[in-house]
Hints:
The protein is built from three helices and twelve strands; from the N terminus they run αααββββββββββββ. The chain is an alpha+beta fold and 399 residues long. Strands 1, 4, 5, 6, 7, 8, 9, 10, 11 and 12 form a ten-stranded antiparallel β-sheet that branches. The protein has a two-stranded antiparallel sheet with strand order 2-3. It is rod-shaped.
Amino acid sequence: MVPNLGLVTRRIVVALLFLLALATPALGDDIAKKRAVDAHLANLQGNLDATRKSEAVIRDRIAALDNRIGGLESQVGTVSLHLAALQRDLMYRRQRLADLNRLFRLETRRLDELKKQYSRAVRRLNDRLVAIYESDQPSTLDFVLGSTSIDEALDMVDFVNLIGAEDKKIAAEVKHSKLEMQSQRAQTKRVSLKVRGDERALAARATQEQEARDALVGARNDLAQTKSDQATNLSKLSAHDRSLADEIAQEQASSAALASAIRAAQAQAAQGPPATPSSAGLIWPVSGPVTSPFGPRWGSFHQGIDIGVPTGTPIAAAAAGTVIYCGWESGYGNLVVIDHGGSLATAYGHQSSIAVSCGQHVEQGQTIGYVGCTGHCFGPHLHFEVRINGSPVDPLGYL
């Protein structure tokens, strides 16, 4: 008896679908794991890039601080030299002023003594003149007439005149000394006043230089502390950088392993009934603007595109294929992944509800779910991905 060919064909198809259904859960698990690993890997890579940018900024700050500290060191040195010179000059001027003050006091005492001597000389001369005038003692003529000879008379006249001349000379010399001492004392006072003014000016300049030096030293110390803090931050960032790099290496290994598992599962699924992709390629799953493109975003990597449409908008399959994942997936929320054959797969995230089941074959344009905002999102939209051999590519190149 010849078996019915149609019945045999249907049995083979059912068996293949059964085998595909058995393989689908494992493939779905691999897809979910890989998506989680890839999302974590993208986040780690973003953190690593951000850390390295922070390191570069801190290194630039440290270099700038080194330059500023060097400049301040030079300024501190220059100001310190000026300050030292001013302080030495100020010390010498203060010593000179002290000597001038001592000289002024000595000259003052000397002048007082000369005034006293002059007063005594003048008083003595006046007393002598009064005494001669009032006394009954013989005058110069009496001395002359009483002399026994001409020579004795001349000697007596010279003697009397000499006494008067000496008194006048002494008084004149004392007066001259007094006037000269007054002049010297006035000169010393003028010099003292000038030196005192110079001393005050130098003291003010020295104070200003000291304040400037203190300010520069304080600024230098503040910059040195800031540099130390920045170096500490840099060491922490470097340690974090190494930790992130190690974690990224581990995540990349996990992602590669999962990609291999996905390719193997897709190869196994390809042995089943062949998909019927559209000759026009993929179609847009929803009609709306692209609100976030494929590529770097927020310090990480956006592995698909976001299409802005209202909640509840039906989502169409971009091409015919088999649903290899349907369910909740961390940041994706409600997620559907369709294998289209030829290593091509598409993913549809953030759905409000899913309209297909795992292992189901769908046609191009068939509704597979509805737009929502589940998982990590900030408003209703469809997150759409295209993957080749499990690796994300820009969907716009396939739509």
